[in-house]
Write a structure and sequence with these properties.
mainly alpha, 3-stranded antiparallel β-sheet, 16 helices, 5 strands
Length: 415
């Protein structure tokens, strides 16, 4: 991939975005940032099957659900998505279920959960995506009666963003940076959530770009870029194993939606009128029964850094998720609850696996499969895993910005 394959973002805006990405001021209770669940140390993810959002303590696999009144009330329904290469022009649909996309359904250029209430001024699908976790109760907003953001959320989604924008722009350092970086701003009081979203987008775009892996060097003709076993893994990936049927193109994703019979658990996400604890995937956005249990194909760039795998993180390692692709129903039947990376939260135990009490739902998930089983020998699986490590970019270990030492709000930075 080259610069022409990506949307252009300025480094000046990205510097603001770096601060905001790790600044907890964008959360209702000022206790969680974007970087908490998309941390540099974990490849832009959190190392958990289902995230520990608002109310949790710590980062990565060691993050715990908190205690007392401030403990988490619910797990995040899905695995924290990787952020790699989201500035690529080919990315026009985001989130596991594709509920945010470039479209003009509501006359504002985007199809989003905010529908016609999406703020004006957003320039990119990435900047638009960046402002939605702030409106999620269990991710960043907090619970009713805890703060003004959570209260506003229960009036209407667009009531949240002006509160957060004001929090940011009244901090002199942020105000000055925004005025310097955005041509349409004459004064700090004009900063809106759209400016914040686009600053976050600029940071994510520049920081999480990865196209300098051994595989890229191999494609460019560099001899010895891959080991012999990695070359064999690449042959399997594009041949016998059938991985490239869905993980195609330079981003290693067709950006389509497929059902894989990933074992379900957690609170899930479903339609607003659906009372069940389950996850219907793409159907939650389209309301089309044919889309049930289908999820967007993830990019495999830096995939070795972003475990666990699956839309809910059902598999802790590449070996597990590859074997599931080879034999979805057999893997579904063999899956055990302790395979999920879930920090202990006894008060949520009754919800974590309650979906398994519904034999009809389990049968539906198990039966909906869009890929065909394949057989590989053990050494071929090992070669595939080795090839996956060749998709890790060299720049991932030395990003342009990294974690800031401090942020303008003065709130603690998760490190």
């Amino acid at each position: 991939m080259s610069d022409s394959d990506y949307h252009s973002f300025s480094a000046e805006r990205a510097k603001i975005g770096q601060m905001l990405f790790y600044d907890k001021i964008l959360s209702g209770n000022r206790n969680i940032s974007c970087g908490t669940c998309h941390h540099h140390r974990f490849g832009g993810t959190d190392g958990l099957s289902l995230g520990i959002g608002e109310g949790g303590i710590g980062v990565g696999p060691d993050r715990h659900p908190g205690s007392g009144e401030s403990r988490i009330h619910k797990r995040i329904p899905r695995n924290a998505s990787a952020l790699w290469n989201l500035a690529a022009k080919n990315f026009t649909v985001l989130f596991h279920d594709g509920r945010l996309a470039l479209a003009d359904d509501f006359g504002n250029g985007f199809n989003t959960p905010a529908e016609e209430w999406l703020p004006h001024g957003l320039e990119s699908v990435l900047g638009t995506q960046a402002i939605f976790p702030m409106t999620a109760q269990f991710e960043m907003a907090g619970n009713p009666k805890e703060n003004e953001v959570a209260g506003a959320l229960h009036d209407r989604i667009d009531a949240v963003w002006p509160i957060l924008a004001k929090r940011v722009r009244v901090i002199p350092e942020y105000g000055d940076m925004f005025v310097a970086a955005f041509d349409d701003l004459d004064a700090a009081e004009d900063v809106t959530i759209a400016h914040i979203g686009e600053a976050l987008a600029a940071f994510i775009a520049i920081e999480f770009r990865s196209d300098d892996s051994p595989f890229d060097r191999f494609l460019a003709g560099e001899r010895g870029a891959l080991t012999l076993r990695q070359e064999r893994g690449a042959e399997l990936f594009y041949g016998k194993a059938g991985c490239a049927d869905c993980h195609s193109g330079p981003l290693l994703t067709d950006q389509k939606f497929h059902a894989l019979a990933i074992p379900p658990f957690g609170p899930g996400r479903t339609r607003r009128f659906d009372p069940y604890t389950r996850d219907v995937g793409r159907m939650g956005e389209t309301d089309d029964l044919d889309d049930a249990y289908r999820f967007r194909t993830p990019s495999l760039r830096n995939v070795a850094l972003t475990a666990p795998y699956g839309h809910n993180g059902a598999y802790a390692n590449l070996d597990g998720i590859i074997r599931h692709h080879l034999d979805p129903q057999g893997s579904f039947d063999a899956w055990q609850r302790d395979m999920a990376q879930l920090p202990d939260a006894p008060w949520l135990a009754s919800i974590d696996f309650v979906v398994w009490q519904d034999r009809f739902e389990i049968a539906r998930v198990r039966a909906k499969i869009d890929i065909k089983p394949r057989q590989l020998a053990e050494d071929e699986i090992e070669a595939l895993i080795d090839f996956m490590s060749a998709l890790t970019g060299a720049s991932a270990a030395n990003p342009p910005f990294g974690v800031p030492e401090k942020v303008p709000s003065g709130l603690p930075v998760d490190r």
